[in-house]
Amino acid sequence: MAEAHQAVGFRPSTTSDGAEVELSAPVLQEIYLSGLRSWKRHLSRFWNDFLTGVFPASPLSWLFLFSAIQLAWFLQLDPSLGLMEKIKELLPDWGGQHHRLRGVLAAALFASCLWGTLIFTLHVALRLLLSYHGWLLEPHGAMSSPTKTWLALVRIFSGRKTMLFSYQRSLPRQPVPSVQDTVRKYLESVRPILSDEDFDWTSVLAQEFLRLQASLLQWYLQLKSWWASNYVSDWWEEFVYLRSRHSLMVNSNYYMMDFLYVTPTPVQAARAGNAVHALLLYRHRLNRQEILPTLLMGMRPLCSAQYEKIFNTTRIPGIPKDHIRHLRDSRHVAVFHRGRFFRVGTYSQSGLLSPRALEQQFQRILDDPSPACPQEEHLAALTAAPRDVWAQVRSSLKIQAKDALEAVEGAAFFVSLDSEPAGLTREDPAASLDAYARALLAGRGHDRWFDKSFTLIVFSNGKLGLSVEHSWADCPISGHMWEFTLATECFQLGYSADGHCKGHPEPSLPQPQRLHWDLPEKIRLSISLALRGAKTLSGNIDCHVFPFSHFGKSFIKRCHLSSDSFIQVALQLAHFRDRGEFCLTYESTMTRLFLEGRTETVRSCTREACNFVRAMEDKEKTEPQRRALFRLAVEKHQALLKAAMSGQGVDRHLFALYIVSEFLHLRSPFLDQVHSEQWPLATSQIPVQQIHLFDVHNYPDYVSSGGGFGPADDHGYGVSYIFMGDDTITFHISSKKSSTKTDSHRLGQHIEDALLDVASLFQDGQRPKPRCRGLQEEHTGHRGGSLPCHRTGSRAPTKSTNF
């Protein structure tokens, strides 16, 4: 037995990836070094947590305060007004020779109490300052005197050396809006899509709700807002995500794409090695809180709480709800290739494995000829099954294959080495992009571990992608990580001339550990049923991705309009032309101005937007009239967006009221109607948050192309978009093939036409012409395909000057 051999000889030992190797140093020395690394990690976290807790003050400020008190005491001054003498009386009497020591201890205790009081005062002052949202409601480009004063005060009360979680103690709590205002805004939002009769009936239900139940439900929400960090976010996570019994695939997860026009290397193992190394570098910076908090206007911080669960996180299925399992650390990744699972250690005795060493490990997996065991190939389809089914099967799997299951669920993240190529191709650009999106969103139904916080997908031609589980955080968090990953692996780490990772292999590394699953017959039957359901769901999704290159953010700015509002109003025009009617439209925006804030809904189908759409379809209307109506629609959308960001939205408040009514068994027909609403058009913008990582002017092809998600309704669309540089907007559209009402390609054409028609209003009726993209192969970047046009002079640098 291996255990007995270890006990006797102390020669074979276990490395961080679980494989047996010969150690050149004694086992006791390795135990010592392992403990030392662990203690260093714990001390580093403790110190970072301490610095975060005392922010915006610093430890040096305590030393300065203590020194000042000692100096005053030496000058026979008592800044404590007698308090230090009382503290001395409470200290033990150690004799006359220790009288001076008692004085120093009393001064230290008084300085600590005074320091703590000052820190608390700074926290309160900063929280009060950050509760001001007047700046958000001001016109674009204008800044009032109160806002200028507010900015100056925030700058004064904010520390200089900020860390990721520095502002968490100072962020205000999300306010509970007035229930009367929420109901009024709700009725205003549904007026454009309801008939007069239906709207009158909804108004009656709303008035009945305000009269009978609203005050009681609102009181409970106010109570929760005083007690909890956020009055809605924990319920949102539990009831919208963790209590959902549907499959995660398509219904909950979303995807992020690689560069659209360029692939840095066609070597699959090399791309995986650099990407995994970059992700682990991001985790290292995250653990040390070296990632700067996101600041609006360069001063207003956003909540960073969601960053905590990016890595080492798994959604565990359960009945009646799932739960999120997060580990403090994990020193391996789980890898899937051709139906087999592997555990790959990411650290050696000298620290994090180099990109070249990781490439070597992934290449070993790719070269491994061993076949998958029966049903092992399709095992991951269980994570795409309904959650109750997966929860029941997992309880058996945990007994039969505990070690293998723990290796996957305890990994830093999941890596899927896909056997097929993906990405843009020269032969059929449109179809190849659509297939790329579908592969990222659903794959083959059995090659992603959908429970993991995210799965890194590396295709056989070197193309990358990300499939993200949604419950633990929202898209801007994973998007921030993905931007860092793409920029780091391409610009900072780079590749050699032959496409491999830089550096040298490490032949002494142990082989990746193959995971073995003991699957009883009843689990095999469940796998077959789960695979059938996953393939059905995957085959039903209709994805369409297209880059719109006629104009982009720069043109919209020249029109003095909000870029997001511009797109949202154009989407209303496109959807109306597609379906011939208006519908409830869901646009996600963030509420991270508040502690533990997540998202809010902007109801983009407004009366002003509908008036503009009707004017565009009315041949009697002139272009100045249409342009004026468009500006009104954009201004209305901007007002709704700012209200939602400042905690004055509609949907999260109504959601929380509904949850309270369920707890109290207090039925409200109005809340039931709100809760049963469908969203035929769900939209989201994917922001580029770290522009400094990419040189979009000199290397325009090296920009993330965003990502997408499944439709929220069986007969609806999911639309996301990202501004790639200044002159391109990439759209990701999804719908279900089973619906006779939707067609992703048809909507895509309507979106393009709508954007061009709107742009012509600001160019004297002239439609903008498409810009060209570059496609030539270069030694620093292997082009994976093209669109019909060509842009020259775009080549990736061997190293970035932006880091």
From TrEMBL:
Biological processes annotated in GO: carnitine metabolic process; fatty acid beta-oxidation
Segments crossing the lipid bilayer: 50-75, 104-126
Keywords: Acyltransferase, Cell projection, Endoplasmic reticulum, Fatty acid metabolism, Hydrolase, Lipid metabolism, Membrane, Transferase, Transmembrane, Transmembrane helix
GO CC annotation terms, alphabetical: axon; dendrite; endoplasmic reticulum membrane; mitochondrion
Class in the EC hierarchy, top level: hydrolase
Ranges where the Carnitine O-palmitoyltransferase N-terminal domain occurs: 1-47
Active site: H470 (proton acceptor)
GO molecular function, a single term: palmitoyl-(protein) hydrolase activity
Annotated region described as Disordered, given as residue ranges: 766-803
Membrane topology of this protein: Multi-pass membrane protein
PROSITE patterns to which the protein is assigned, alphabetical: ACYLTRANSF_C_1, ACYLTRANSF_C_2
Domain Choline/carnitine acyltransferase: 175-752
Subcellular location: Cell projection, Axon; Cell projection, Dendrite; Endoplasmic reticulum membrane
Enzyme Commission numbers on file: 3.1.2.22
Catalytic activity: S-hexadecanoyl-L-cysteinyl-[protein] + H2O = L-cysteinyl-[protein] + hexadecanoate + H(+)
Pfam families in alphabetical order: Carn_acyltransf, CPT_N
Family statement: Belongs to the carnitine/choline acetyltransferase family.
Job description of the protein: Palmitoyl thioesterase specifically expressed in the endoplasmic reticulum of neurons. Modulates the trafficking of the glutamate receptor, AMPAR, to plasma membrane through depalmitoylation of GRIA1. Also regulates AMPR trafficking through the regulation of SACM1L phosphatidylinositol-3-phosphatase activity by interaction in a malonyl-CoA dependent manner. Binds malonyl-CoA and couples malonyl-CoA to ceramide levels, necessary for proper spine maturation and contributing to systemic energy homeostasis and appetite control.
Protein name: Palmitoyl thioesterase CPT1C
Source lineage: Eukaryota, Metazoa, Chordata, Craniata, Vertebrata
